[in-house]
Amino acid sequence: MCGIMGYLGPRPPLEVLLDGLKRLEYRGYDSAGIGVFEGQKVLVFRSEGKIRDLERLLEGKSFSGPSGIGHTRWATHGEPSERNAHPHKVGRVVLVHNGIIENYLSLKEILRGKGRKFSSETDSEVIAHLIDLGLEAGLNPKEAVLEALKQLKGSYALGILIEGMPNLLIGARKESPLLLGIGEGEYFLSSDAPALLPWTRDLVFLEDGDVVFITLDGFEVCDLEGRCLLRSPKRVDWSLAMAEKGGYKHFMLKEIHEQPQVVADTLRGRIYEEEGEVVFEEFPFGEEELQKVKRVVLVACGTSWHAALIGAYWMEELCQVVAQAEIASEFRYRRFVGGEDVLLVAISQSGETADTLAAIREARKKGIKTLGVCNVLGSSLTREVDGTLYTRAGPEISVASTKAFVAQLAVLLLLALFMGRRKGTLGQQEVRSYISLLRTIPGLMERVLREEGRIAELSRKYAEAKDFLYLGRGISYPVALEGALKLKEISYIHAEGYPAGEMKHGPIALIDERVPTVVVAPRDRTYDKTMGNIKEVKSRKGKVIALLNQDDPLLEAAVDDLLKVPWTPPLLSPFVTVLPLQLFAYHMADYLGTDVDQPRNLAKSVTVE
Prior knowledge:
Largest sheet: 8 strands, antiparallel
Number of domains: 3
């Protein structure tokens, strides 16, 4: 998402900061800014838009100080604008921040009570106020920073300057990446390695809870209690291209592995377990309008449509409303009947999908309320709907969508909980229980990703197959569809996803020893029925790859291969069951030598009919 760059040393800081920010552009952003020392003061320059817009502000300028910080912002709190751009300057403190401060509203009220005035809508500004408050109280910079950080709940990567101290650069991280680069008599901070590699290959990968204080004489890393920590630099041999991929062979694989963090980021600041509440500050409709909603229509294309199918399942189960998922390219040509009792939810990673935009326009003509689920700020979709719930996946480079899909799932599940609570179909304790379970999902996803080696072996075993059948029931049916789509998108192997109950209505004719069947079968109320489908495949000499989340010795003995995932309640199973299917498709395509990130005939965003 956002990008951070910091520098302390003999070079002109402006040159280093702008170069680093440009190398972080792939992370996606809506505004940019820098803060640079001139004498004992820090001068701040910010601009909405691209780095080139910031460069126009800086034309002809030079600075005498040795240090500076820079930032590219992907908005989460507050619209994209100059006043919400970073760095934030409060008193003597100049600060850039990646992440989300979950308790910023309560901190803001406390700070206002102490006479503090805010110049932005961001959660980040509260951090600068807290540090400045400490300095005003007589604390030294180290004490002030540590005291401020102890009050924060959420995630952060920080770059900090203190006016009057041009030879000090401070960094801190919790659940957001931050690296320290070490050169000859110079030091760098960045949220990602590509920005540092032109200058140094000696990197310290800061860990959660680390705070680093950098001077021209060296650096000190400590924890929030001020205890010194040993952090040694590591020399990396990455090329710039490799670094942008985080050392992964392809962007798709990097994005698959980013999914636990993406889910955590999308949940953060929106779930309040103790209160049993989901909060969407950006939700555009009031209680009265929401009570009128009896029908939810989710429109999308491709992978987003598979997310919509799961979302419709959640809406019916948790909100007890009529819910349907529609392919946008079909919906736009239907004579759809609806009015004020309908909520249309349009889902698109890019926000530029032509058919989805057309569906929104048709709905608005009929006076239907519209809500967007989107990953790109300021995209066409976000301007067409009544309000947008943003996913927090960051830029997705690979054409085959992975992390955007799980981010969409996270938002749709939160939306179902949010609506269910307000419509009275879910009680406080029920929502609290779901939130508690949701918090475990990123950790469970990490466990699945650790099985990548086994999944890669399995993909090579089946690499000669020309056709695949994917089966699932209930909430696992859209997962089967998504698994099949990923395989055909990037490996060019024909694959079809079907509801398992429909197998006998045609697809069973395809099954023989040359057509493997992937069965998504977590333990739920349809499990026994799905087992019957597996037996039918085996009786026709078909090979079965079964995806299970509980031990079943009889079944395990009957199938050819197993993919095991951790147990989750059935409603949450898609978060873990989709991961092995993504990895299976990726390793199949990589083994076959296809262009994984840019498969033939496909575009990232389908912006024309």
